[in-house]
Every structure is written in C-alpha cells, then in structure tokens.
C-alpha cells in the first residue's frame, strides 16, 4: 500500500520539479549541470498562476509524502541490509536501492533545508538538488520495473477492506517472502493502525503546508519561515537589510537606466500606469497574489527604442547571484508584465523592492528582480 501511494504521487513531484527547473532556467539561476539540461523552451506567461501551481505541488506534495517515505523504509528494514543472493536480478534490484533510497533521502533533506533557508551543506542547492533528482529518477524507474509485479501480487493477495477491519489481536505476520523478517516479532500495531499513523502524519503536514499556496488558508501555514512586511503583509525571502544595499543607492540619487535614457521614480510614476493582480511564487514553496501597479515593460521597451524586443536583461542595485534576470520576448511583451512601483495601493517598501521591481506572470519570484537599476532590451 505504501509503495502504491508513492508510485502514484512521486511522478507528480518529479514532473513538477523538472518543470520548475525549466522555469528557473530563463534567468541567472540555476547553475551549470553539464549534459543534464532539459530541452530549452520559453516558459509560458499564461496562465499567470502556472509556476504557482507547479512549485506549490512540488514542495507541498513533497512534504506530505515524507511520512510515507519514512514508513516505507521502516517497513523493509528487515531486508534492506540483508546480504543479497548471488542472483543477477537480486543484485540489480539491490543496486537500484542505492540510487532510490540515497536519492530520495538526499532530495528530502536538501529540499527541507532550502525551505528553511539553511544551507549547511555548503554547495549549490539548485545544481545539487537537480542532479540528485536524476539519480533518484534513475533508481525509481529501474526499481518500479523490477518490483511492480511484486506490488501487484501483494495488493491482490488480500482484501484491503478486510485488513482495515482487522484489530491488533488478530494481526498476523505475512507469509514468508521477500520483505518479511525471518523471525517476525508479535505485532505491536495493526496494519490499519500503521496506515492511520502514516496517513495522519501526512494530513497534519498538509494542513500546516497548504496555506503557503492557498491565500485563504495562509494563517494555517505554520511551516512558513518567511517574515512578512506591509503593504499586504506578504512574505519576503530577502530583506533590504540582508541585501547589503546602501540606502543612498535607492534614495534620491536612484535612476532607472534604459540604455542611454534614465528616469527618476517620479518620472516613472508620471508615465501611463497599469494595475494587475498577479501571484508571486518562490522556490521555497510559498506564493501569494497581490495587486501591482507600475509601467508596462513593453512601454519601457518602446521608450528605450526597442519596440519589438527579443528579450531583456534586468539588473539590480544589489550584487551577487540574485542581482540579474533574463526575460524572454513573451515575458517582456505580456500586457501584465510590469516594472512595479506600488503594491496593494501603496508604494513598495524597501523589503519588497523599492524604488522599483519587476513582476511578470508565471515567472519564479527569484527572477522578479527587486531594486532594479537597469533594463537592457535586446533587439
């Protein structure tokens, strides 16, 4: 049963994770991963909630499955470290376990640490988590190919409904087989009790996580580690203080550079303004929809002398790996893609990117550059 749940749910985590990698690949992140890159294509801007959905499913479902993964590993411990037979099929199966178990534990640990912004592992999360995913995928595919018949036989061997009605006093070990201990101890928990514990743990994590993606349930998102600031009281990954930017650089001397043209913030506010309700979603799994107001990027491209841009490079006042992002032509030309100056009817705060930040439909939050300094439109 545990294997069946993972067989149904893990492909969703895998596919959404790979889609998120494609979405991130449009900017300065992620790192180089040699020949493991997926085929390149422009990440779509419609629907605007696309990245919110894929990232929310990837992180949320990944967290919910942690109790199932741990229970699955616990259930096979009697055989996990047993010496395998000298049968080639058994040796191949054991080899897949190295990739499967090592891969999924690596993905869980690095993923949970990334959610908490705790990079104790000392290497690039983006590259390592992606490479680790391919190790896990290889083990997962091979293991399913080898063990699917065993799982099907196991599910057909007894009635699930009857098993849920079996109390502890009547719980007996399974017949000797591949995953049964040689001399099993008496049961200390019924099978329905074990499934209830695992399912209850997953439901609890779901209740504490879903508010990171569903706005109406945000007060329940107790696992959300981000601070929140007004206007809108929505999360902030990187605060102004953490950026190390000199306050003077975003004060009265700030100018937006568009090639040879420069604009003060007041001059930008004097341009035609557009308002759009757009979500902002980050790799750590949280997302929220806010109302943004600013100048359309396509209008700025026209002012810069590039009415039909093939892309854009946005640079921040900040230094470092998060200081720039590349946008595709579709992202620049979307009618709701903005250089935002205000959010929820108020000026941006320094934590949210004052004096100006980029907001683009379906774009990962890390590429919605804050404290924008220049935008270079490609012809």
UniProtKB/TrEMBL annotation:
Listed InterPro entries: Mopterin_OxRdtase_euk, OxRdtase_Mopterin-bd_dom, OxRdtase_Mopterin-bd_sf
Stretches that traverse the bilayer: 49-74, 95-117, 123-146
Keyword vocabulary terms for this entry: Membrane, Transmembrane, Transmembrane helix
Domain Oxidoreductase molybdopterin-binding positions: 260-378
CDD domains: SO_family_Moco (cd00321)
Pfam families: Oxidored_molyb
Entry superkingdom: Bacteria
Protein name according to UniProt: Molybdopterin-dependent oxidoreductase
Species per Swiss-Prot/TrEMBL record: Pseudonocardia ailaonensis
